Amino acid sequence: MSERIVVDPVTRIEGHLRVEADIQDGKIVDAFSSGTMVRGIEKILRGRDPRDAWAFVGRVCGVCTSVHSLASVRSVEDALDIVIPPNAEMVRNIMFCTQYMHDHVVHFYHLHALDWVDVVSALKADPKATSEIAQSISNWPKARQVIFLIYKNA
Amino acid sequence: MCVEGSVPTEAEGVYCMIGGRTSLDILKEVSANAKAVIAWGSCASNGCVQSAKPNPTGATPIHKLLKGVPLIKVPGCPPIGEVMAGVLVHIITFGTLPELDGIGRPKAFYSKRVHDTCYRRPFYDAGLFVETFDDDNAKKGYCLYKVGCKGPTTYNACAVTKWNNGTSYPIQSGHGCFGCSEENYWDAGALYLRNQPFPGFGIESDADKVGVGAAIATGVGLAAHAVMTNIRKSKIINELIKEGKESEKDL
Are residues B30 and B74 in the same domain? Predict the structure, then answer.
């Protein structure tokens, strides 16, 4: 006899997700996931100017917008047999890498951090100990006791 | 209450389910005791991309679903961070809603067109345009109107606040504004087609004479939008003239 656990909504992600897991003797034996929102962007795109597709497709996600747009641009180029010059590829790669870093920061601080950081109790933190931890991992000039103290008392 | 996103209403709202409930159901419950509602972004303010034709899920902006509660629209895809913060700070500091324009946007940020505050505006006035994205004019930073810039029909603060701590904004990066804070912008003509001319008003009459063919192709919706924009624009100009005459009396 298995027990079903439902996690809905799955937080810490952009968008809406539902996961159902069947559990037997403490082990997951089967699992189902479903996106619980649909907007039909594929249908909306039909009949439009292919040069505009990236802008629609990017709106799939508000955190990793650029990769969806980039994928869309590549799809259009693939469909129309367009070969882009090496410089364009480089510019795109720079954009992609920038987005990669941005995405990780947004994902961690906006979506994930609440699993690890108790924002309210941060006010009780010791500025000295916090600055020592911060300085042990980075030389960021603002990771100083006095600055943390200012923020704490603000 | 702050709402992000539009609400799908087709098929009894099943296109957006959170924890087994429709988003419409949740919206109604949460808004019941709200002092005011802020519609964050173009989705909540005007439906945005999912409400573009044919709007398969019946995506509906918040002001069409909630009646009888004060509503502030903060459109933009995405809206500008400083604008969002500005709206909240105003409400928290003064305990009142900021002054809104005719369609519910805060006047402080949405009373000027991107075109009016654009640093490339002198090129527009001088008739110097980018013709294609890889021509010499693009390198010189000329006006992007002919390659689809929707700045002349878009009310927002992008050119003033800019983005990413004031680093840049689309036009500064060489791409036209596509009017993401305006209603129905996805269906208001292709992104890289020249904006609709504004016939009959003469406010932009110094712009080059735009082809009639383009006017036919871009359709009635856009024309209506351009007309509305110009009505608003001429209203603003008339008010400014009146204000100028009033202040002259004091001289």
Answer: yes
